[in-house]
Structures
1.
Amino acid sequence: MIINTRVIEFSCHSDEYGSLVALESNRDIPFSTKRVYYIYEVDELMRRGFHSHNDLEQVMICVHGSVKILLKTPFEEEVITLNDPTQGLYVGPMVWREMFDWQQDAVLLVLASEYYDENDYIRNYEEYEIMARKHFRGSGV
Ligand code: TYD
């Protein structure tokens, strides 16, 4: 996986009544969750995201359906398919992300380490690339 990202496997309580996943801050989720949002009713051909964050940490979970996430830095890129409610995609600071190929009424649940702050967004890719090269300099990537 690319720097500042990883897939987290959650425990699932499944029985004949169905399935349940519980997410606890600083246990299953590697930060204190301050905000939860979900994205749904997205057209299959729609591409969203197109940004990075300076400091924010997030865990993305596709709780229904399937969606692809492009993760990108100036040095590497990867596409992760999220289609399993028992898996979370951790995305840390300074990673560019785009969400696409929304299938079967996908619902993407996102847990975030901070309240919404537009100032933490980097929405221009050229600007992101310059900042990310500085940020990751000396980190071995
Ligand atoms: P945006 O960040 O553009 O979504 P995406 O990156 O998935 O394409 O957010 C869409 C709108 O929702 C925008 O007007 C900002 C607002 N918003 C909030 O008010 N709070 C939030 O926590 C988030 C993530 C977005």
2.
Amino acid sequence: MNSNRAMNSNRENDSGEVLDTIIVGGGQAGLALGYFLARQGRDFAILDAHQRVGDAWRQRWDSLRLFTPAKYDGLPGLPFPGDRLSFPAKDEVADYLEAYAGRFNLPVHLGVRVDHLWQENSHYAVTANGKRWESANVVVATGGCQSPKIPDFAERLEPSIVQLHSSRYRNAGQLQPGPVLVVGVGNSGAEIALDVSRTHSTVLAGTPSGELPGRHGRAAARFVLPVVRFLGLHVLTLNTPIGRKAVPQFLGHGTPLIRTKAKDLAAAGVESVPRVAGVRDGKPLLADGHVADVANVIWCTGFADDFGWVESPVFDDAGRPRQYRGVVPQAPGLFFLGQEFLFAAVSATLPGVGRDAAYLAGQIPLQSTRPVAHHRQEA
Ligand code: FAD
């Protein structure tokens, strides 16, 4: 492990101190914030459910490469290594994050899944693996891939059909022989459909929300993606009318295809069909009334937030925290970072999270730590 302080144990906070800040989630968002808090000399801990820094990326599908070029993928203080116009593979991102935690000696505690967060008097408490931690501030940086969304009718598909959500898809070796239905034409659906089409007859259900113009690649990294990044960082933000108008698009309807074009899918033999509307006789029923006779279904239907473990009245009807740039006016000391469109179109991406982290680090009030009664073991 590269990280000097990354720990796989559960023995932390034994001193019974109230920490200044707990960051829940040690992905790129939690680490970027950790960088700034460390520079401020704060007493903080990053708690992460995974066994290794970078595992959120390691666990994505094998052929995944970033859309964003390396020149924009570095977090504050450490450029992404290698060719600046290349698109790093997902394991390279994971290894970069692990090296980042090590370089800045960030206090990441691994294998710690927080299952409850609540306010208690003037501070916050969290529990994880039966242990309790306390801090003046808590930042929720658990990412946007918390709870895979799969339609309820999926359970009525006949048991012989292999079903996977995109979050569990690694490669076509997980599938059985026979046709594959990929459901959902976001970027994940389009890329996974191309991946499986190399070995399986593939059908892709749904309609994309457009395509970025031009061909993705090194030339785009040089000339087009700088413009896209500028728009995502400075134009499409909560501070602009056009940015506020774009929020529902980003949250609900998916973003345009970035790398894969409809014509690439057609050239690879991927058949495009209407969306899946239900189940008939144990098979997927399409919106045009046809039944898809397939052996495998991959649900590329996105993720829902799951803040069920956060006990706080700060969520709106859609389950999103009421916040501005991660600050929750209703709950001083509680913060969010890394969520889709937290502040800008790029808030949930490597090119955007560093700026949000820098801003948040300036908003988290510095508390002097104070001793409390002994560390308690929860029942
Ligand atoms: P995550 O990476 O999901 O990290 C969250 C961390 O929180 C995890 O380590 C998890 O273990 C931990 N955690 C969660 N719940 C708890 C809990 N209760 N207690 C303790 N720990 C917890 N962005 C780009 O910039 N470029 C790209 O090309 C790009 N491609 C993408 C491709 C895919 C398929 C996906 C899904 C996303 C992509 N993104 C891309 C978007 C974004 O960069 C990633 O989703 C990134 O992983 C988000 O980082 P994060 O730190 O916010 O969340």
